[in-house]
Q: What sequence folds into this?
């Protein structure tokens, strides 16, 4: 019951006019940025993070809760109306959502996505309230070797599970790890990879990395392809759902939430797998199988709920272990760090009020989105009519503003451009961005844990391996790493057998 | 800035930029790229050999990381048995390994996600270059002119480069945006943006 009391305190902290206004502001600009084509939730948070630098931590985190859900909400709207998934987790939503919009049922698609996101977000945030303290209890018993193992798992899994090509995932991860190494070594104070540039001594801010790779990279990518024409935007009618839409949506919402949350809560579970699973499940269970592929409402409701639930689920390892497993969580972790707060098992003891305010802020932001933004969707859609030159000029403008504000030095702008060029190259060559972002923030943390483990064991290498928990995790890593070998062998064997048979 | 140079080396059109070619050609040959060079001569359609630039970039990064690590004093202490050296060395070795496997994958016809959509396109490096120039101008001018002026120039320049032809309307939008963000974020929310030459006027 302690948790519920703390949560109520969190609500009490939010329900003042000033803080509600901040939550509203967060929700609104989160939606606006999330809607911009080509940018997703993580981008919305990274771009908007710097504007919270001048605020009190509590207010900053209230705004964050709003931006978090607002960004997701905006992202799914763009995906449905423009047939452009801003992030990999929206890919499945687009399948049916765009077809529905084509058939003149765009309003219903947006409504089921919005209400489904609300339902899933609420369920997942409630689950978060109960699961996180349990994870904390488990995490408090873990030592440095176990943390190291879990971090290595998260790194290997993001690089190899997501995306179509492992080698490109690892390339991206290594670039991220190198960027994370730049700066003064925390233990010995020696400068690494700064090559005598004093501005690099403090390292490269994760916000600059995320904004550079996502936002500046996207702007350069658009410039490189000379696509100045406007995308086709499908007009939306009234955003509402009829009785049959409700009947067909509530099941997928609940099943999607149930699928999404656990995947999000596991390190590197991601949102792609649960959204896809949800789509397949709904197609199997649906009484309207024929509509799938032509705009079935279940195919929007389920994946969209799974997407949101998984996003809330990623907050569990982020808050309880200090372990960010997607770009959104990585940027949020950076936000905690700018306030001198280190997420992890001790967070709930040390900064209890702040965490519960953040969680309460998630509830409030989610509810605000439903009440205030759903009727406003047609207004938001007008944002999509901004001509491309203005849109991307604006993105560069805000990206520069945010990057400059991280340290107040124009040097950050050069770093931002360098990362934008890396982002451009990654888009050109189809290299996934997420492993790099996660590597930047998780790499230095993993190194610190490794050195701490060795320090505790007095330099004995066995100290790195730790106890049974770490062994289990390394076992999982081996399975992930060796999986392609196993399937390759299986393919070879079947091919040999076929060769013999013929 | 080394990162930026190398990134540009990897991004620029390889057929055009001879300066950048010197930069990246050497490492492409070094790690597992020996076979790649001969393969480039007999390029088949369907293989995206420009990916070798990425391998080159990874290898250069590996060299930079290892050279820097070698420079570090290898001293250890009782509270830090391994020191700051091993992690960069591991990263450098892994970078070489990944660059080699990447090159192998490229030569065997591998490609990234949604390759069909992007690989064939001729990229417009002139626009990218101009956009970078506008961006750098902002970086150089921001401390002197202040955010309102340099940010407005950034927006205006970027919009023009990206194809806007309504110069005055764009300029008006840029100035409004510059002023609005300065008053809203710097003065309202306490964000650290410079006033520059307009110090005292704003």
A:
């Amino acid at each position: 019951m302690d948790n519920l009391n703390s949560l109520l305190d969190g609500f009490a902290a939010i329900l003042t006019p000033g803080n509600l206004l901040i939550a509203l502001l967060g929700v609104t600009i989160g939606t606006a940025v999330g809607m911009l084509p080509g940018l997703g939730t993580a981008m919305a948070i990274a771009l908007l993070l710097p504007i919270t630098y001048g605020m009190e931590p509590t207010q900053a985190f209230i705004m964050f809760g709003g931006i978090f859900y607002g960004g997701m909400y905006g992202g799914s709207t763009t995906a449905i109306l423009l047939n452009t998934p801003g992030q990999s987790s929206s890919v499945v939503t687009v399948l049916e959502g765009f077809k529905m919009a084509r058939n003149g049922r765009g309003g219903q698609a947006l409504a089921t996505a919005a209400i489904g996101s609300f339902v899933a977000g609420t369920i997942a945030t409630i689950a978060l309230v109960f699961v996180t303290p349990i994870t904390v209890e488990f995490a408090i018993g873990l030592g440095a070797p176990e943390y190291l193992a879990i971090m290595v798992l998260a790194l290997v899994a993001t690089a190899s599970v997501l995306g179509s090509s492992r080698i490109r995932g690892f390339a991206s991860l290594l670039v991220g790890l190198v960027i994370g190494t730049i700066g003064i070594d925390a233990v010995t104070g020696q400068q690494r990879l700064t090559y005598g540039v004093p501005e690099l001594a403090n390292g490269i801010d994760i916000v600059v990395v995320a904004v550079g790779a996502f936002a500046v990279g996207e702007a350069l990518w658009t410039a490189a392809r000379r696509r100045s024409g406007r995308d086709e935007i499908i007009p939306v009618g009234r955003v509402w759902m009829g009785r049959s839409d409700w009947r067909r949506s509530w099941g997928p919402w609940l099943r999607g939430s149930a699928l999404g949350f656990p995947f999000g809560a596991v390190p590197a579970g991601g949102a792609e797998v649960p959204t896809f699973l949800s789509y397949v499940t709904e197609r199997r269970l649906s009484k309207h199988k024929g509509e799938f592929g032509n705009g079935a409402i279940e195919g929007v409701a389920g994946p969209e709920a799974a997407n949101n639930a998984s996003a809330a689920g990623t907050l569990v390892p982020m808050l309880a272990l200090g372990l960010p497993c997607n770009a959104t969580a990585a940027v949020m972790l950076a936000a905690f760090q700018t306030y001198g707060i280190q997420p992890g098992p001790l967070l709930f003891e040390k900064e209890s009020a702040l965490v519960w305010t953040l969680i309460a802020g998630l509830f409030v932001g989610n509810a605000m989105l439903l009440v205030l933004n759903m009727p406003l969707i047609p207004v938001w859609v007008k944002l999509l009519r901004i001509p491309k030159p203005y849109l991307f000029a604006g993105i560069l403008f805000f990206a520069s503003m945010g990057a400059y504000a991280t340290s107040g030095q124009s040097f950050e702008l050069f770093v931002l451009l360098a990362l934008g060029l890396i982002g451009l190259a990654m888009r050109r060559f189809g290299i996934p961005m997420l492993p790099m972002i996660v590597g930047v923030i998780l790499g230095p943390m993993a190194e610190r844990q490794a050195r701490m483990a060795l320090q505790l064991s007095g330099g004995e290498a066995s100290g790195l391996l730790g106890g049974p928990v770490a062994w289990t995790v390394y076992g999982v890593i081996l399975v992930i790493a060796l999986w392609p070998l196993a399937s390759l062998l299986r393919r070879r064997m079947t091919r040999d057998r076929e060769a013999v048979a013929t | 800035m080394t990162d930026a140079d190398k990134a540009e080396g990897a991004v620029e059109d390889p057929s055009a930029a001879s300066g950048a070619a010197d930069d990246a050609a050497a490492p492409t040959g070094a790690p597992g790229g020996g076979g790649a060079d001969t393969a480039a001569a007999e390029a088949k359609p369907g293989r995206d050999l420009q990916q070798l630039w990425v391998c080159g970039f990874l290898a250069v990064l590996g060299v930079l990381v290892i050279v820097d690590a070698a420079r570090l004093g290898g001293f250890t202490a009782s509270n830090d048995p391994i020191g700051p050296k091993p992690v960069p060395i591991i990263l450098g070795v892994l970078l070489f390994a990944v660059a080699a496997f990447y090159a192998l994958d490229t030569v065997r016809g591998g490609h990234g996600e949604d390759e069909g959509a992007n690989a064939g396109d001729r990229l417009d490096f002139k626009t990218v270059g101009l956009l970078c120039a506008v961006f750098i101008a902002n970086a150089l001018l921001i401390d002197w002119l202040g955010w309102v002026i340099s940010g407005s120039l950034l927006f205006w320049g970027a919009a023009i480069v990206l194809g806007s032809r309504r110069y005055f309307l764009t300029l008006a939008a840029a100035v409004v945006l510059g002023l609005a963000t300065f008053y809203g974020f710097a003065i309202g929310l306490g964000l650290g943006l410079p006033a520059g030459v307009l110090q005292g006027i704003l």
